[in-house]
Write a structure and sequence with these properties.
The chain has 13 helices and 16 strands. The protein is of the alpha/beta class. The strands form four sheets. The protein has a seven-stranded mixed β-sheet with strand order 7-6-8-9-10-15-16. Strands 2-1-3-4-5 form a five-stranded parallel β-sheet, with helices on both faces. A two-stranded antiparallel ribbon has the order 11-12.
Amino acid sequence: MHHPSFFLLFTFLMALGIILPSSSLYPHLSSDFMNGLRLGLGNHLLSDLFHFESIGKGSDPDKVSGVIQKLQLQHGCTRIIAWFANPLASSIYPLFTDGNCTLIHTNAGAHLPPEVNSPYVVYHSIDAWQSTWSLGKYMATQGLKKVFYIGTFYDGGYQTAYALDQGLSEGGAQITGWHIPKPSAPDFGLDILKSTIKESDAQAVFLSLSDPDAGPFLQMLHEEKMLDAQPVFCSPLMTASKDLAYHEFGTSLTSATSWMHAIIPNEDNPFVTAYLDAHPSPPSVFALLGYECGFLASLTSAGTPVNQLMHEKLATWRSPRGFQQFIPKLGKTESSHQLLKWSTGDTQDAWQWLDILPSPEALDEKLFKSRQQAFTLWKEPYFCN
């Protein structure tokens, strides 16, 4: 029979740290994430071994690193799942170099993925930047060589616009005009928008509108018939909104994302079914990331570089987004990106799956170049305003 101290030691070694941000706009972010996490862990870890910490907006490197060290030293966590902004990675990742603890870093992926220089770190997101990149290239292949970008001030501080530009340029297309009004601009700067969109000679419009401005902005564009002349595309992050009733705005939208609970091509989704069995509403993107991070945490073990674990074990795992793969050069996971369309007149949850978009070629080389050039204004992760 094992001595009681054995079980105390086992508990110490198996402790899992959870670090999540707060969001005034999405107050359910943490609770949804934890609901998904419990499903993802299954029987791998008891809930009383969670050590949970909140880090505000997830943009303060000192606060994030302090919480991580508390989980490592005080609670003995050998695995930590943390949602924080990618610009903080260079100061956080060095805390995971000795092999005593593994980090699963997650967020929406509105920033370009960070450089992972530790064998004990995995970056896992919905890769909104890559969906946008692939969507931009798709637009170019459809002959849409001149694109007008309309975004909220908040969205403009992330790198999805840069990703769109890079995808368009691969197909010989470009952004020929911009409209990013200041938050205080009346009518979202409508008069300026009318003149600049006309001057741009655009063949398509790309929308990047975050809540709570997305609904009023779309309503204004609809009333002014600003979206009637060209095909309209929208950012992957707009597909995550539960509050936008796109059918009210009288326009067709095309987008791309790596996952939506309503888009299940040709098969049922066990995750969605299990989630609905336990909760009254469909899983959000936060629940999805919690579920996947829980599963990834169950694969890791202290002292073993993640490269040796992820590549082999992910090869046979079908996540809610389809087959995942681990890219050793980038230290990150990747899934396929889906092309979606919302047609005028459809009712709620009417995004239709169209196709799978190819990933950028030579991705590691392009990301290395992009990290030297891309600018980001905001340090907090997307959804955490």
